[in-house]
């Protein structure tokens, strides 16, 4: 993990509690709803969410019947997303992973 990635992970770890409890902006909710409508209309069944945060959008994906996997740079966000999922028995949510391994340049 680069120094920049480590700094970002630390920042997002510190912000995790606030982000988990914050209401989303109405415009973002509208865009997510339109995206969900498109996924359902196309017959999609799975979503991979990059930058899943505490799992707020994953909750909406699950509510629409989509299977969700997520990844985030922040271990605290991943912990919170996993915690939320563990309190529900949804087999449609397969994994929330943290980016903790060194990056590998393309082509190697």
Spatial strand order of the main sheet:
1-2-3
Q: Nearest-angstrom radius of gyration?
A: 15 Å
Total beta-strand segments:
3
Shape: globular
Secondary structure topology:
Elements: H1 3-21, H2 26-41, E1 46-50, H3 56-63, E2 67-72, H4 75-86, E3 93-98
Parallel strand pairs: 1-2, 2-3
How would you describe the overall organization of this protein?
The protein is of the alpha/beta class and 108 residues long. The chain has one domain: Vaccinia Virus protein VP39 (Rossmann fold). It has 4 helices and 3 strands, in the order H-H-E-H-E-H-E. Strands 1-2-3 form a 3-stranded parallel beta sheet, covered by helices on one side. Helix 1 packs parallel to helix 4. The C terminus is likely disordered.
Give short descriptive properties of this protein.
alpha/beta, Rossmann fold, 3-stranded parallel beta sheet, 3 strands, globular
Question: What is the compact description of this entry?
Answer:
This protein has 108 residues and is of the alpha/beta class. It has helices spanning 3-21, 26-41, 56-63, 75-86; strands spanning 46-50, 67-72, 93-98.
């Amino acid at each position: 993990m680069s120094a920049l990635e480590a700094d970002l992970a630390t920042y997002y770890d510190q912000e995790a509690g606030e982000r988990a409890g914050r209401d989303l902006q109405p415009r973002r909710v509208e865009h997510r709803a339109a995206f969900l409508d498109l996924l359902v209309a196309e017959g999609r069944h799975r979503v991979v969410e990059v930058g899943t945060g505490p799992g707020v959008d994953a909750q909406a994906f699950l509510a629409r019947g989509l299977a969700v996997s997520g990844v985030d740079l922040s271990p605290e966000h991943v912990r919170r997303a996993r915690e939320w999922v563990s309190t529900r028995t949804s087999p449609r949510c397969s994994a929330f992973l943290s980016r903790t391994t060194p990056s590998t340049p393309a082509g190697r």
